[in-house]
Amino acid sequence: MSTTESGRRSALPPESTGPAAGSADDEASDDYALTPVPEGARRSWLSVAVQRFGQVSSFQQFMVGAVLGYGMTFTDAVIAITVGSVMLEVITILMGVAGVKEGVSTSVLARWSGFGRKGSAAVGMLVALSLAGWFGVQNGVFAQGMHDLAGWAPVWVWAVVGGVSVTAVSVCGFTIMAWTAYLTVPAFLLLAGWSVADTLAGHSLRELLTGAPPGPVMSLAEGTTLVAGAFILGALMTPDMTRFNRRPSDVVKQTLLGVTLGEYVIGLTAVMLGHAARTADVVGIITTSSGLLGTLILTTAILKINDWNLYSSALAAVNSVDVLLGRRVGRRGVTLVIGVAGTALSAAGIVDDFAGFLETIGVLAPPVAGIIIAEYYVVRRYRADLERARRTGRSPEGIPDWLPLSLVCWAAGTLVGAYLDVGIPAINAVGAAFVLYAVAGRAMDSRRRGRARRTPLSDRTT
Length: 462
Prior knowledge:
With about 450 residues, the chain is mainly α. It has one domain: Hydantoin permease (Orthogonal Bundle), CATH 1.10.4160.10. Helices cover about 75% and strands about 0% of the residues.
């Protein structure tokens, strides 16, 4: 084992050291849920990039684009996608690079990035609940589409079928999820091309690009919030995926490729489909234009985004249980439990509040990313501890349970996103949390250094 690999493997969270941490084989089978991914377990750029592209170019983005096309002109939809995408790319790259360097998931990274041990558990619980909800949303869409095509079974039966399939893939972990992406991403791109050719046939391109929206008008702020909210959790959870990358440049390449092509190609295609079909019901568009084949490919497209919803939800829950209960639970078992719960939510019809769910997440999640980025790159209070851990193989010590500043900034960012009438709520939320934490954190750090300089050496060594 190389020195670098040993350092990455040994830089464990404090409560994960010792016998409870398990053997190297146990850590590998658990996809390193609480420990850094060692160099030997890192993956090629392609295996991670195709999954990132699968997230952004998924059916979820098709849904968002259709909603934009139903309520906005094509030009306004381009602006909304551009503004939302730029914010997502910045957050995704910064979060992703931190994931590569530390090799840990978002919720574990949060322990040394502004939130403390129990604060990271709060982040984990938010993420776990939110992504379980997303799992239910996507599974509900699949169930409705299958019911419309094959009405012999009620929606809830299809929800169970879809939920069981996605749960099985997610339980298997990163390797099987990568192979799923190799199959589903090309299939979904073929479906997009098929739907475009069929639905846009006979429509004037000029009309689609310049015509008025067919539905109730959506404001630019609402559209941009929808774009950002649709993937803000994906941006926040980027370290869950990029901890398997080998170098920071991989993160930049896969983000620019995945987010740019996914948002523009899939999003704007769906905008034109919404204009042409004069509906936001993208499931209906696909099943009508592509029939049985389209619905089957739709199934695989939803599978690709939903396996990561469930996977990241489980990682976040594992960290919360580890911190709050002091128990090491297996990722696979947690994935199974959340999969059952998410399937029940989809059967209960959570998909009916799709837009409202996106808007809610759009103001709750961004402040967390803003705080992590501000601490990791600007305040850097614990960066030296993390770097020392990588060199010595000894885990950072002295991390407090709570860091009140992060809670204040989280609340402030959420309030700004929810109540400030100027600008884009999601951007306001992440920006407010970032600026407040960066300024206050640097000020507090300067004050601590000043007190240390004024303290006599004899007092410091007593």
